[in-house]
Amino acid sequence: MLAELRLNGMPDLATPLIAWYGENARDLPWRRPGFGAWGVLVSEFMLQQTPVTRVIPHLQAWLMRWPTPTALAADAPAEAVRQWANLGYPRRALWLHRAAVEIRDRHSGVVPRDVDALLALTGIGDYTARAVAVFAYGERHPVVDTNTRRVLSRAVDGRSQSGSPSRRDLDAMTRILPEHPADAAIVNAAAMELGAVVCTARAPKCKVCPLADQCAWRAAGYPDTGDGRRRQARYEGSNRQARGAVLKVLRDAAPQPVDLAQVIADWPDALQRDRAIDSLIADGLAEASGGLLSLPGHRVAG
DNA sequence: GAACCGTGGTG
DNA sequence: TCACCAAGGTT
């Protein structure tokens, strides 16, 4: 197989990745044997755009409270949003709750192992579906996150950054996966891990990189292909900030609703405040009734 | 494909 | 200080 890869002009990335991962993999909760598909799924939801160090304590608390999808599905969405606390992007909490309901209703309470079935769940996209299938069930698929895309862009394509996610990324990853599913899973995890701790966006640690010898980007003298991502919108004064402030009030008061007029009443921009509340209601993250605002599914007294 | 969606750590 | 960044997904 190695000869075949070289004939195609592809260096063997799998072998050094597996060796490096064996020595350097972090001991993360969801990598423990027997962590379970539900635990893996919850961890993947939480890890969507939230750093590992912030996720770990929340993950433990979540699984302690809701050890199964059915347990979560039996609770109100409001409780999911409240338990989510300050992890950010609270719609993920809502989506995770919806996914739990779907798992209960469509899959008898068992997290599906089929990628298409996973993709059909709320809040699960290309990355998460494959991550669950591969890391929880040992299926053989390419798992491509932003770390992996950066690693492949550099090592294979010689670019400092990757463009937007595409089918090509999955194909590129497939090309370096070993045949055996267990090995393929390790390569998937190793590529992500390498991107997370060595081949980082800002200051890559090429001195300790197991792929340095074969890295096209390094060989080309680290060109800055900077087809970079769009600048993240300013947070201060943003709608996101306003929404976050509203939701924090609701979380802190829950299960009690809050007088609508008192929700971030001192917000500098009253129009923005109103729009934030309306958009949260539209998103299903809040409910208004009788002049009171609450998290979704917390019945308003009276 | 671009815009949008939270929050906190960091160089 | 502040812009960047973080195991994405949906619209």
UniProtKB/TrEMBL annotation:
Domain of life: Bacteria
Residue span(s) of domain HhH-GPD: 46-197
The protein's required cofactors: [4Fe-4S] cluster
Name this polypeptide is given: A/G-specific adenine glycosylase
CDD domains with a match to the protein in the record: ENDO3c
SMART domains in alphabetical order: ENDO3c (SM00478), FES (SM00525)
Family: Belongs to the Nth/MutY family.
Alphabetical UniProt keywords: DNA damage, DNA repair, Glycosidase, Hydrolase, Iron, Iron-sulfur, Metal-binding
InterPro entries the UniProt entry points to: DNA_glycosylase, Endonuclease3_FeS-loop_motif, HhH-GPD_domain, HhH_base_excis_C, MIG/MutY
Higher taxonomy: Bacteria, Bacillati, Actinomycetota, Actinomycetes, Micrococcales
Pfam families: HhH-GPD
Native source organism of the sequence: Microbacterium pumilum
